[in-house]
Structures are given as structure tokens and as C-alpha cells.
Amino acid sequence: MNPVVSVLFVGGVLGIGAYVVAVLDRAFGPVSRGPRDWFVWPIRRAAFLAVQRRTETERPDAEAWILAPALLAALAAAGLTAVPVTPSLAVADVSAGVVLFGAAMIIVMVAVFLQGWSPNSLFPLIGAYRFAAMALSFGIPFSLVVLTTAIPAESLSVGAIVASQEGLWNVVRQPLGLPVYLVTGAAVAFWGPFRIPEGTDLAGGAVLEASGSARAVWRIARAGVLVTLSVMGAAIFLGGHLGPVLPGWAWTALKTLVLLAVFVWSGHAFARMRVERFVWFGWVVLLPVALVDVFASGILAL
Amino acid sequence: MSVLGVTAIVVFGVASVVTGWLVFRTDSMVRAAYWLMASFVGVGAMLVTLDSQFLGLILILMMAGEMTIMAIFMVMYMMNPAGLNPMVMVHQHRTAIAAGVGSFLLLATVALVADFPADPAPAGADPTAELGFELLGRSMLVFESAGVALLAVMIGAVAVAGKWGRFGDADAGSVEPPLDPEEAAS
Fold first, then answer.
1. Is there a single domain that holds both residue B89 and residue B132?
2. Taking CB atoms and an 8 Å cut-off, how many pairs form between chains A and B?
3. How many domains does chain B have?
4. A94, A120, A280 ranked by CB distance to B82: nearest
5. Which one of A113, A122, A140 makes the best mutation probe of the B interface by having the most chain B beta carbons within 10 Å?
6. Is the minimum CB–CB distance between B43 and chain A shorter than 8 Å?
7. Could you tell me if B41 and B4 are in contact, meaning their C-beta atoms sit under 8 angstroms apart?
8. Do B7 and B69 fall within a single domain?
9. Do B70 and B153 belong to one domain?
10. What is the domain extent for residue B167?
11. pLDDT tens digits along A110-156
12. Residue of chain B whose Cα is closest to the Cα of A112
């Protein structure tokens, strides 16, 4: 794909996706005032953040603080490039696409750590450490379920993984994959029950001192990570662009929307988890389940 | 290799060296750790440019987690717990300079003297598949021993980290250390 078109495409998908996330969040949320409010609220909120005065802290790591939201947005964009939206249209359907996606999603840990660490403030720092503990616990199960989808395709390319689901989607073939992906994916975007580094018990945690445009970019980037997770989840578990009647891009958009709705809904349906409990959950429940998923898929492939 | 490819390799290589140098020029633990990560990302990007996508991306994937763990451990062992106060990151200057110059000369000599093989991979070869055949072919014993050992460590770590134990939950009866120093002293 032409480089300029690629940048516009990735930016467009992430921008529209972030808006959809905000609309869904308002719609599922406790303060919902009808459809008009769902669509207006994100714009109003963005306008408020655009004119909000910037918070200053004592001796922050200024460069890292500015870079953290940009890094998060860049990671969402990098993960998105590997997914083919239609059979022929992908920014870069590289031969190790799922590994590219996995690497981008693991580096989210660095972005969140920098965001919490750089303002030189107590609660954001605690938030940063919480996310490091979380990320080490969900990192392995997340990577395992994503890489397991490559086993039936015999290829790490996302295009080949989608093509291998012609006939039977991975959500059926690997029944443990999608549930683990949804749980760990929400944790990657520290969304919903895993809003642990930004919990209200820390008065906002990692993002407490961020205000104005920096906070707006951080929020948009986090929604972008959720969009990337949904697009990739739709591609590797729900057959991506495969489907009857409708064109390929419509199926990708539809499946992405379903996963996005599940992610956003989980934020209002479940209480936030404590970080100790999440670490236990990650190592004792998610990791063994993900390993069973790998072994079962391996045996099936043989 | 195309002009674009060679340019990319040079850019990534220079970026790796510069960020590697910055590791020692910064005055902060966390910055040092992440400059080192940036340096490894540069190396990973070079590998990707050299058509070894899987190895390059895996290198980048592993480094993110490792460098965060390193930063946390470095900060943990330090006097100022937040790690934001500036501190000198280098010590033993004479020994360090001697070791640095010595290893540079050694590697430069190897680079100039060694007779590197010049057999380009055949077009259309899949490096990831080749790597897989190597890992589960000739080098199977080595890699499978390491793999099984790592799996055992993972299972062991889960067992150790599990909340349950002979005397109940691991955190039963534990008390968080007080933040007030006077309370801690009493």
C-alpha cells in the first residue's frame, strides 16, 4: 500500500475506532441520556480537554512524559498494520504479523510505566508499578493464545491465519483462545475490570497528573489499543473478512464492532479487580488455560 | 539489497549505537533501562531489514518486558525509591574505560580479520521455517532441553507464587509495612 495512504488509513481507523469506543462507553455507562448524548459527549469531552490547563509537577521527566501517550498511540498503529482488512488490502501483511502485533502489545507496558513514572508523583508511580506487575502476569498467556492461532495456519502471517479459517473459525477450533484473549486483551488496554493502574482508589493512578491535551491523547491512544485488539481478535479468532453476501471490509468492521462492544461493556459489567488477585489469576488460571490451548491445538494439528 | 534497505540498516545501526551510548550518559535508572531497550529495538529492526522478521520481532518483544523488570529491580535496590532523583550511572572510570577500549579493539579486529561467509540465502527462502527446522532438527537436543527446563521453571514459579500453601493462603496474616517511619521503628 502507498505510504501516504497507509498512514491516513491507520490514523482513520484508530480515530474512528476511538470515537466509537467513547460512544459505546457512554451508551453502556451509568450516565446515559439517550442516543444524541452518546454521540455528542465524546466531542464535548475532547473540547474540554483541549482547553484545559496543563498540570505541572515538581521536576518531572518532561520528555518521557510527553513521549508516553505518543508511544501508546504508535503501538496501537503498529499492531494494526499487520491485519488484512479485505483479502487484498493490508498495510503490511508481513510474514511474522502476529509476532509484530504481540511485540507492540507487550511494549504497552513501557508506555504505561513511563506515563506513571515520569510526572514524579506518588499515585501515578504506584499505578505504573501495578501495571508492570499486571503485564508480567498477562503477557505470557496473551502471547500464547495469539501465537496458537498460527498453528492451524502453519504461518505467522495474519493473512494466512484468516485464510486458514475458511470453513471453521478459530473461535470454534480453539475454544479456549477467544476467552483468554478477551480477558488478557482488556488487561493490555487496562480497560474495565483491569483498570488497575488507573483505578479510582489511586485517584486516577498513572494518568492522575496528566491533563489537557496530554490526557486527551492518552485516552484516544488507549481506545486505539482497544480498537487494534478488536481488529486483530476479529481476524485471528472470528475469521476476519470471511463471510457470505457482504463485502470483506464490512465483515471485518462488523466483527470488530462486536468485540469492541464486549470490551467496552465489560467495563461497566464487572467490578475492578485488585492487583494481587489479578497476578494470582494470571499465573494460576490464565497461564495453564493458555498452555492447554497450545497443547490441544498442537495435537489437533498433528 | 536495495538502496532503501541499506539506508534503513545504517539508520537503525547508528540509532542503536547512539541510544546505547545514551545509556551511560543519562542520570536516571529508568531512562538508562529504556535507552538500552531502544538500542535493542534498533538491533531488532536491523534483523527485520535483513529479512529475519521473526528473530527481530521476538527480540523486540522480549526486551520490553526484560527492561521494565530491570528498571524496577534497579530502582528497588536504590536509596531513593522513586528513582527520579538524578544519580551518577557510571563508576570505576579507569577500569570501565580500559574494558570499553579493549573490547572495541578486540571486536574491531575480529570484524576486519575474520573471513565472513558470503553465501546469500536463496530467493524465496522462508527464514522462519528454516529456523523452525533448525530448532527441531540438528539443534533439537539443545533447544528442547532448554525449552523443557524453562517450562519446568514456569510451572515451578506458578506453584511457588500460588496463594495456597500448607499453612493456608500465602498472604494470610501478612501485614503491609507501615509508611510512617516512627511506626516502623516501634
1. no
2. 84
3. 2
4. A120
5. A113
6. no
7. no
8. yes
9. no
10. 128-172
11. 999 989 888 888 888 888 888 988 888 898 899 999 989 888 888 88
12. B68
Q: Note the pLDDT of residue A183.
A: 92
B24, B89: one domain: yes
For residue B83, the chain A residues in CB contact (below 8 A) are 117
CA-based nearest residue in chain A for residue B85: A59
Chain-centre distance for alpha carbon A155: 23
pTM higher than 0.90, yes or no? Answer: no
pLDDT tens-digit readout, A218-269: 999 999 999 999 999 998 888 878 878 788 788 888 999 999 999 999 888 8
Q: Is residue B137 part of a domain?
A: yes
Distance CA B170, CA A30 (A): 37
Given B50, B72, B93, the domain boundary residue is B93
A141–chain B Cβ distance below 8 A for any pair:
no
* A58-63 long-range Cβ contacts below 8 angstroms, 24+ apart: A58/A120, A59/A120, A59/B84, A60/A118, A60/A119, A60/A120, A60/A121, A60/A209, A61/A114, A61/A117, A61/A118, A61/A119, A61/A120, A61/B28, A61/B30, A61/B31, A61/B84, A62/A118
DSSP state of A284: I
Instruction: Provide the domain limits for residue A90.
Output: 3-301
- Specify the number of domains making up chain A: 1
Task: Assess if residue B102 is contained within a domain.
Answer: no
- Cβ contact (<8 Å) for A109 and B65? yes
Chain B residues within 8 A of A106 when measuring between CB atoms:
61, 64-65
| Pair B132, B84 in one domain | no
Mean pLDDT of A64-89: 87
What pLDDT score does B106 carry? 95
Are B75 and B135 in a shared domain?
A: no
Residue B38 contacts A where some CB pair is shorter than 8 Å: no
Write the pLDDT tens digit of every residue in B21-52: 998 888 888 888 889 999 999 999 998 888 88
B115 to chain A, closest Cα gap in Å: 31
Q: Assess A283–B contact: CB distance below 8 Å, yes or no.
A: yes
Q: Which of A61, A96, A132 sits opposite B68 (nearest CB)?
A: A132
Q: Is residue B53 part of a domain?
A: yes
Name the average pLDDT for chain A: 87
C-alpha cell at A16: 474512528
Task: Judge: B60–A156 Cβ closer than 8 Å, yes or no.
Answer: no
Same domain, B22 and B66: yes
Residues B12, B85, single domain; the answer is yes
User: What residues of chain A lie within 8 A of the CB of B76, using their CB?
Assistant: none
pLDDT tens by residue, chain B, 186 residues: 688 888 999 999 999 999 999 988 888 888 888 899 999 999 999 988 888 888 898 899 888 888 888 888 877 777 665 556 677 777 888 998 999 999 999 999 998 998 888 777 777 777 777 888 888 888 888 888 998 998 898 778 777 766 666 666 666 666 666 777 676 665
> Cβ–Cβ of A120/B68 closer than 8 Å?
no
Residue B126 CA to residue B173 CA, distance in Å, equals: 56
